[in-house]
């Protein structure tokens, strides 16, 4: 089922690329409707609809002929979805450029969490094609569910020698842990809601003999782009720790491909983790929803940490856990490819031989990945050094202040100090002052022009008065 | 007028000379008092007061040091550390030098300069003298001549030895029982010149007098000592500096103070200091050999231009004339250049004539 959806996406993307007029846009909508004709039916139908400038080059008749010819034996033009399901889509994105319906294989043989698999693929597709709003509607077993995939924040990554890439850089909800428990030392602190992609450039790849024998020719390369979430650029003193690295591989149509698991299994051993400043990498065995597409590596430190419910511990003492998204975007150029079928074949060959391609270029690919991870780690290591300097100074500040207060024989002065910090004695003063000082240091806020900031709700903390005194 | 009288008195005998010096002293006192009265209570506080020198204007010297900024957090910690050291010193009524404070935690402070700067900043912030912080500077100045006094701990200091100078006290404010019959004090810019004069028995030749040097840019204790001598003895204070912008600036520090210590101007400046030499006009008058003269460097010229813009010259037109002469001639000279005229020219001819015939500005 995923394969069919990928096939349709591939064709739509390739057709739109081919037929795209110069200057046409890359925005629009894609509707994937999965529905059953009658209750209890074992077969699901799939309708794919597209509208907007991104598919302006698509010719529906040509698409149907191709599909009918080789890919979708179950394509049935007589299958028509409920027009009511299409109305909201056309209202939003305009008239349809594509409407294609086909029947899926027997749903009884699908994995139980197939729905999550579909969502994960579409989510990953949306990441690298942020201009397209994807609507997934499931209508079966008398239940309807709708899921939209749209980029709240987009960033264009462009280079002179590269096609422009529009990425969804919005910080995922599950990564914005700090928003649910704002410490908000800065009353008007704002958080960057997005990320800042870093283009690692293009790496030429050699085509392995097996792929060549299969007919894959031309120039093959991979473009690496990294994205770190959440962004803490506006908090220069905030310590960070890389929790996970997720590698997403895209075929030349910018469609996420699964695997190659064999190649990426060797990644931890190929990384000089100590040199990078990483505390080891490992590939978890469990399959959380986040991990369905792409390969995810977690750092050993994250694996060992238990979730802490203690609010005391969740204070600024913990570094911000960041995740690195590494896009590997395959690119292919063959001057002898002219027909749509040539492009489709080449694309499918690349997917089929992906493992061999990457293995054939292992040293270069690993070196490139190492470089990108290293660049991401540089910022973290720099923050660590800064944190050491701040902590060292904080110790001196704390000991000097306590020395004065402890040695003072002036009762009024001592009481004033206790009252200001809302403590009863010097012991409590010391711990409270230390904690406050570390919070003030860690949560220093400096607005950064390129961050996607929204104002936090004003946070009137019970600690607010303490902060101003420090 | 008085200068001519003094020169005539030198011919008739030394008694008359010193009588006239005393008269000059009284004149100076009167002029300072009137200048102080006129300038000190001005409605508008200006940075320069001819009666005091360079003063700190309130509201213009605020610096913010943040504890959460990486660039300043170390300084923040250093300041608090020094504050805690000072607190302990004041509590225990003990004293420490700035060097002692530095060695308290060399890793934190990094350099002696950091400690020095922060101690001055704290002094300025709390609006107290450094002495009140119980942190003393190690003195680098030397003093010699007709002077005896008691240190705070009771040690008797006699500066009358002809062969060796005495280090300026590190606790000038604690000095008491000053005894001196000196008729004037001469501030010498450089240690080399000071030693030369000491070797030439200058203090005996033109006795009674006091010589003091800060060995270049004077430290606070040397300045305090000059101020103390002026406050106690009320005798003329002359400055003997090189005929170059740097020497002139050093003289101005004694007379008008420095920007860095402007918050303590009242306790450090002696506006009555007079410029004895080496004047730029002396170079022409004495026909100092050309090979002894040095061309002004670019840096000298820039400094000279900067000095000419300072507010000092409004009350010192003759000084301005001398600086303009230096600017036009584009040459400078050290005091040592007088040795090219004759080996003992400085102590045997130049200085005695200058003092006898009123050759000061």
Automatic annotation (TrEMBL), chain A:
InterPro entries recorded? TopoVIB-like
| Superkingdom of origin organism | Eukaryota
One GO BP annotation here? meiotic DNA double-strand break formation
List the Pfam families hit by this protein, alphabetically.
DUF4554
Which protein, by its recorded name, is this? Answer: Type 2 DNA topoisomerase 6 subunit B-like
TrEMBL record, chain B:
Q: Does the keyword Metal-binding apply?
A: yes
Q: Which reaction does it catalyse?
A: ATP-dependent breakage, passage and rejoining of double-stranded DNA
Q: Which residues form the active site?
A: 103 (o-(5'-phospho-dna)-tyrosine intermediate)
GO CC field = chromosome; nucleus
Q: Which UniProt keywords apply?
A: DNA-binding, Isomerase, Magnesium, Metal-binding, Nucleus, Topoisomerase
Family matches, as Pfam families: TOP6A-Spo11_Toprim (PF21180), TP6A_N (PF04406)
Which residue windows are coiled coil?
none
* Gene Ontology molecular-function annotations: ATP binding; DNA binding; DNA topoisomerase type II (double strand cut, ATP-hydrolyzing) activity; metal ion binding
One biological process GO term for this chain?
Answer: meiotic DNA double-strand break formation
Which PROSITE patterns does the UniProt record give?
Answer: TOPO_IIB
The family note in this entry says: Belongs to the TOP6A family.
The protein's name in its UniProt record: DNA topoisomerase (ATP-hydrolyzing)
- Species in which this protein is naturally found: Oryzias latipes
């Amino acid at each position: 089922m995923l394969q069919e959806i990928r096939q349709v996406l591939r064709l739509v993307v390739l057709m739109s690329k081919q037929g795209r007029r110069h200057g046409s846009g890359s925005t629009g909508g894609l509707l994937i409707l999965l529905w059953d004709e009658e209750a209890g039916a074992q077969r699901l139908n799939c309708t794919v609809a597209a509208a907007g400038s991104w598919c302006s080059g698509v010719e529906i008749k040509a698409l149907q002929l191709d599909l009918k010819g080789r890919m979708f034996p179950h394509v049935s033009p007589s299958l028509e979805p409920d027009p009511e399901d299409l109305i909201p889509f056309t209202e939003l994105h305009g008239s349809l450029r594509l409407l294609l319906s086909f029947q899926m294989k027997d749903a009884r043989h699908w994995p139980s969490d197939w729905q999550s698999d579909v969502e994960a693929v579409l989510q990953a597709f949306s990441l690298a094609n942020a201009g397209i709003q994807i609507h997934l509607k499931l209508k079966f077993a008398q239940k309807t569910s709708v899921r939209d995939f749209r980029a709240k924040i987009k960033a264009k990554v462009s280079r002179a020698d590269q096609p422009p890439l529009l990425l969804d850089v919005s910080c995922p909800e599950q990564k914005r842990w700090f928003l649910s428990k704002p410490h908000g030392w800065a009353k008007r602190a704002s958080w960057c809601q997005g990320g800042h992609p870093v283009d690692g450039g293009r790496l030429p790849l050699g085509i392995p003999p097996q792929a060549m024998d299969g007919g894959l020719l031309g120039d093959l390369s991979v473009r690496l782009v990294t994205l770190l979430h959440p962004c803490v650029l506006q908090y220069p003193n905030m310590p960070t720790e890389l929790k996970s690295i997720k590698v997403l591989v895209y075929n030349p149509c910018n469609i996420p491909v699964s695997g190659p698991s064999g190649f990426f299994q060797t990644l931890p051993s190929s990384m000089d983790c100590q040199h990078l400043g990483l505390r080891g990498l490992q590939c978890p065995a469990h399959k959380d929803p986040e991990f369905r597409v792409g390969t995810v590596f977690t750092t050993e430190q994250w694996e060992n940490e238990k979730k802490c419910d203690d609010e005391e511990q969740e204070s600024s003492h913990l570094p911000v856990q960041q995740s690195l998204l590494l896009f590997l975007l395959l690119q292919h150029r063959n001057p002898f490819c002219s027909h749509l079928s040539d492009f489709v074949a080449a694309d499918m060959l690349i997917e089929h031989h992906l493992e061999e391609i990457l293995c054939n270029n292992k040293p270069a690919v690993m070196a490139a990945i190492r470089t990108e991870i290293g660049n991401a780690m540089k910022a973290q290591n720099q923050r660590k050094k800064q944190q050491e300097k701040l902590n060292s100074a904080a110790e001196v500040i704390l000991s000097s202040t306590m020395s004065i207060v402890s040695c003072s024989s002036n009762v009024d002065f001592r009481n004033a100090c206790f009252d200001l910090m809302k403590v009863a004695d010097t012991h409590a003063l010391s711990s409270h002052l230390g904690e406050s000082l570390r919070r003030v240091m860690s949560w220093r806020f400096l607005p950064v022009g390129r961050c996607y900031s929204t104002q936090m709700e004003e946070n009137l903390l019970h600690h607010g008065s303490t902060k101003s005194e420090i | 007028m008085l200068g001519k009288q003094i020169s005539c008195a030198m011919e008739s005998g030394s008694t008359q000379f010193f009588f006239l010096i005393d008269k000059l002293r009284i004149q100076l006192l009167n002029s300072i008092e009137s200048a102080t009265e006129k300038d000190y209570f001005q409605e508008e506080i200006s940075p320069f007061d001819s009666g005091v020198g360079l003063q700190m204007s309130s509201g213009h010297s605020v610096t913010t040091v943040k504890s959460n900024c990486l660039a300043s957090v170390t300084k923040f910690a250093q300041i608090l550390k020094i504050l805690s050291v000072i607190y302990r010193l004041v509590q225990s009524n003990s004293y420490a030098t700035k060097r002692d404070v530095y060695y308290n935690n060399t890793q934190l402070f990094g350099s002696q300069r950091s400690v020095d700067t922060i101690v001055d900043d704290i002094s300025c912030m709390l609006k107290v003298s450094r002495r009140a912080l119980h942190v003393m500077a190690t003195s680098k100045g030397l003093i010699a001549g007709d002077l005896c006094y008691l240190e705070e701990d009771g040690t008797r200091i006699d500066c009358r030895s002809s062969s060796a100078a005495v280090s300026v006290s590190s606790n000038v404010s604690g000095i008491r029982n000053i005894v001196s019959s000196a008729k004037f004090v001469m501030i010498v810019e450089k240690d080399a010149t000071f030693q030369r004069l000491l070797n030439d028995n200058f203090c005996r030749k033109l006795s009674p007098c006091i010589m003091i040097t800060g060995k270049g840019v004077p430290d606070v204790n040397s300045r305090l000592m000059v101020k103390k001598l002026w406050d106690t003895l009320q005798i003329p204070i002359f400055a003997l500096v090189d005929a170059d912008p740097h020497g002139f600036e050093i003289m101005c520090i004694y007379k008008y103070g420095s920007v860095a210590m402007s918050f303590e101007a009242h306790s450090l400046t002696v506006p009555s200091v007079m410029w004895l030499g080496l004047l730029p006009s002396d170079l022409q008058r004495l026909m100092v050999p050309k090979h002894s003269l040095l061309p002004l460097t670019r840096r000298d010229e820039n400094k000279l231009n900067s000095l000419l813009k300072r507010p000092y010259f409004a009350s010192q037109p003759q000084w301005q004339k001398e600086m303009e002469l230096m600017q036009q001639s584009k040459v400078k000279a050290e005091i040592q250049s007088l040795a090219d005229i004759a080996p003992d020219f400085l102590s045997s001819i130049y200085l005695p004539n200058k003092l006898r015939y009123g050759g000061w500005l």
